[in-house]
Design brief:
This protein is an alpha+beta fold. It has two helices and nine strands; from the N terminus they run H-H-E-E-E-E-E-E-E-E-E. The chain has helices at about 1-10, 15-70; strands at about 75, 85, 85-90, 95-100, 105, 110, 115-125, 135-145, 155. The longest helix has about 55 residues, at about 15-70. It starts with a helix and ends with a strand.
Length: about 160
């Protein structure tokens, strides 16, 4: 009778081969799950970077349009056709001044791009207007401070 009970216990236990196969399959599943997780994190980071660059580009564009539309005159650049890296607008009682320093765009000394982006270059060109309204062409290149894993820095002009 002891021989029969010994055989039953041996059949219900795992063999070393079965245990090795189980660990191998579990390892494969864990590797696949970790790759999917890291890819999801990379996509999330890329999305955050692109969003920051696009958000700042839209904000700077909207702010420039708003200030130029309400300006009474453009004091810098001085004449039509002139261009420079700063813009001064006469608002009547005040002046709005845009300047670029070390990748940061300032409006009257206040940073207007976020800490996630930097302005690589900016150019303001005064254009001769036919209706007497101040007209300025602004061209700027904005890029992310943070690099995406797959594509490097995001840049928009």
């Amino acid at each position: 009778m002891s021989l029969i009970s010994h055989k039953i216990n041996a059949k219900s236990a795992f063999t070393t081969i079965e245990l090795a196969l189980y660990i191998a399959l579990l390892s494969i599943v864990l590797i696949l799950v970790s790759r999917i997780f890291t890819q999801a994190l990379d996509v999330s980071q890329e999305s955050r970077i692109v969003s920051a660059v696009e958000r700042d580009a839209r904000f700077i564009d909207a702010r420039l349009r708003y200030d130029i539309a309400r300006a009474q005159d453009v004091t810098t650049p001085v004449s039509a056709g002139a261009s420079g890296s700063s813009l001064a607008l006469d608002m009547g009682a005040s002046t709005a001044t845009y300047t670029l320093a070390a990748g940061v765009l300032y409006l009257d000394g206040v940073q207007i791009n976020s800490h996630q982006t930097m302005i690589d270059s900016i150019s303001f060109t005064r254009i001769q207007s036919t209706d007497g309204q101040p007209t300025v062409r602004a061209t700027f290149t904005i890029s992310s401070i943070e690099e995406a894993v797959a594509q490097g820095t995001k840049q928009q002009t």
